[in-house]
Specification:
Blueprint: H1 4-14, E1 21-25, H2 31-39, E2 42-47, H3 50-59, E3 66-70, E4 84-89, H4 95-108, E5 115-118, H5 127-139, E6 143-149, E7 167-172
Parallel strand pairs: 1-2, 1-4, 2-3, 4-5
Antiparallel strand pairs: 5-7, 6-7
Length: 174
């Protein structure tokens, strides 16, 4: 799950995107989904786990602009959602999963003004997976960091710590 600082930073950046569509990869309990629902016209939250989607539905009962999508992101199949402006990646945390997620995002982006939000970017336990994959896309000029979000470098969770910011907002480069 994301920190309150992460959620606040997402809200502050995207609160005026009320006419846009967002897709969230990785629902978990639906807490970040709730924040996204207040920023965007429509939020599609994608998760393989029906249990996670059910938990998110209970948390977000009464919020009408969320669509819960049971889907395996790592099965070679198209996720047919159009007119996407913002995507959030917080699903599989292995290198190959993040690469697959970013490539899927790049193929789903509509127009020249598209953003990808990343969680767990700076977590020490994900340095060789999440951070490595994201940095490769940044270094290949496919995406550009717009803002570092969430808790910052040095934050200590006790058993884990941040070697860089918790998350990033990146703009897709065309």
């Amino acid at each position: 799950t994301t920190s309150n600082k992460f959620k606040t930073d997402v809200w502050n950046f995207f609160k005026d995107f009320k006419d846009k569509i967002c897709v969230e990869f990785g629902t978990h309990k639906g807490q970040t989904t709730k924040v996204l629902s207040y920023c965007f016209k429509k939020v599609y939250t994608v998760n393989i786990s029906e249990e996670s989607l059910a938990t998110a539905k209970m948390l977000n009962v009464g919020i009408e602009n969320i669509e819960y999508v049971p889907f395996d992101l790592y099965f070679d199949k198209s996720l047919d959602i159009d007119n996407v402006s913002v995507l959030m990646i917080d699903a599989g945390h292995k290198y190959q999963h993040v690469v697959s997620d970013v490539n899927r995002c790049l193929s789903m982006c509509d127009g020249d003004d598209c953003y990808i939000i990343f969680d767990d970017y700076g977590m020490n336990t994900h340095e060789k997976d999440v951070k490595k994959a994201v940095d490769e896309f940044i270094n290949s000029n496919k995406i550009k960091i717009v803002k570092k979000i969430g808790l910052q470098k040095g934050y200590d969770f006790g058993d884990k710590f941040l070697k860089d910011s918790e998350g990033l907002i990146c703009r897709v480069l065309r």
